[in-house]
Amino acid sequence: MADRAAPAFEDAQIALGDRVQTVRRPVVPPDADFSEAAIIAAARKQTGLHFFGDDPFRTNLRVLIRSIEDEAKLNPFGRVMARQFLIARLADRLRAQDLFDRHPEILETKLGPMTFIVGSARSGTTRAHRLLARDPRFLYLRDWEINFPVPMPASFGDGPDPRIGRAKGAHAAFLAMNPENAHIHTLDAEAPEEEIGLLSMSFSSLMIEVQRFVPTYGRYCLRTNQHAAYAYMKKLIQLVAWFRKDDPDRPWVFKSPQHMQDIDALMQVFPDAKIVFMHRDPRKTVASTCSMFWNISILGSDDNDPHALGHYIAEKVHSQIAKVEQERRTIVPADQQLDMRYADINADWAQQMQRIYDFIGIPFTPEARAALNAASEDRDARHGGHKYRLEDFGLSAEGIDALFADYVEKYGIPAEDK
Fold it and tell me: How confident is the model at residue 5 (pLDDT cuts 50, 70, 90)?
């Protein structure tokens, strides 16, 4: 058999403000078809399965496809990646449904107490989550589990789960195309990671937005109760717990900025959950979020408008905060929510972790403190390198200050370096 030819690559120089950065991506044929009929047929052919179970996800999928076609301005590589992403999520839904049908005990799996860390993107949710995950008393989802939550046939064997290698390979390929992303969010296949990948299975996820500019889809998700997506996320968590044979009484720790716009759905599905709300200077969260979205989306589009992205991100973060503030008052019981500032974790992480442990009702033991201290030292050694400016995205410090003035005043959020 002849060896498969290595893919050709092309370099693209992308300007942002007074900087130019180079991304490297494969050369692919144009005109990938990601219509609803085409991707559903491809997922069924790939898996040999047909039944999705209840499929309210189709409404989200249709809005997303229209938004991709109308707004994302994808290049050929972006179209291929969009097609592969959609097919992979549908294929995983088919495989998951097959497991649910063959093992109905999966959906009877008991889950222990849950704590969710919620805040705007880039507000410190990852740091708090990864600190807590170092305590062996907590259960959490790992990166490879949120990217590939459905076990493959080989996953049930005695060797390493093949999904770990798939995740490592995907991360390596992603960083090879744009190394700048290594400074934005640490990618580690076996590290704790947010559950946003599980929501992607229902096409209700900021992960989708970060990969391509789809504002109509984003606004639709924000204004629509995503109960079905969260109910399906719970099924996937049960699938992970069943596969791992987790202790049903151990507490879980989760995190995602996604929940800023979905507290209504989250509390409907997890009514006893405790929520830690993170707060950080909006100048930093908005600028850093713009940079993250930009650095990922430029792989799939050659027609990027950083100012359009900037104004959309500022609008979105503001809308998320307004929505969560309203829903905290009406949906989340007072004794199930705790506020925490990014600046306070930077000043004294141990004191803030003590507050979380007291809130959850778990002792902050010397062993836990030692484990979290090691995690904090590791984070400090790796931190740095991500550069971002509001001005590159058509925004100003004064404009952000005015937009978020009430929020900053309410929580006494200190300004970071300007």
Answer: low
Tell me the CATH class for 9-411: alpha beta
Contacts of residue 357, Cβ cutoff 8 Å, sequence gap at least 6: 363, 364, 368
DSSP state of 120: S
Residue by residue, DSSP assigns 142-184 as BHHHHHS-SPPGGGGSSS--HHHHHHHHHHHHHHHH-GGGGGT
- Predicted confidence (pLDDT) at residue 218 exceeds the cutoff of 50: yes
Backbone angles phi, psi at 133, to 5 degrees: -65, -15
Percent of the chain with pLDDT over 70: 95
Opening angle at CA 208, ends 31 and 166, nearest 5:
85
Helices first, then strands: H and E counts in the chain: 18, 6
Query: Which element (helix H / strand E) includes 117?
Result: strand 114-118
Give the pLDDT confidence of 393-415 residue by residue, as tens digits: 999 999 999 999 999 999 999 99
Distance between CA atoms of 51 and 58, rounded to whole angstroms?
A: 13
> Which 3 state secondary structure label does DSSP give 341?
strand
Residue 146 CB partners (closer than 8 Å, separation 6+): 193, 194, 195, 196, 197, 198
Work out whether the CA dihedral 323, 324, 325, 327 comes out positive or negative.
positive
pTM of the predicted protein model: 0.94
Q: How far apart are CA 395 and CA 283, in angstroms?
A: 10
Q: Which two tokens stand for residue 93?
A: 């839904």
Looking up tokens 């007074």, which residue turns up? 18
Average confidence (pLDDT) over 245-271: 97
What is the rounded distance in angstroms from the CA atom of residue 29 to the CA atom of residue 7?
11
The per-residue DSSP string of 370-415 comes to HHHHHHHHHHHHH-------GGGGT--HHHHHHHTHHHHHHHTPPP
- Do 274 and 377 touch, CB atoms closer than 8 A? no
CB 134 within 8 A of CB 375: yes
Closest-CA residue to 288 (of 403, 124, 407): 124
Burial of 198 (0-12, 13-18, 19+ CB in 10 A): buried
Amino acid 111: pLDDT: 98
> What would the DSSP string read from start to end of 12-42?
EEEEETTEEEEEEEE---S-----HHHHHHH
Q: How far apart are CA 397 and CA 418, in angstroms?
A: 8
What confidence tens digit (pLDDT) does each residue in 32-57 have?
Answer: 898 999 999 999 999 999 999 988 99
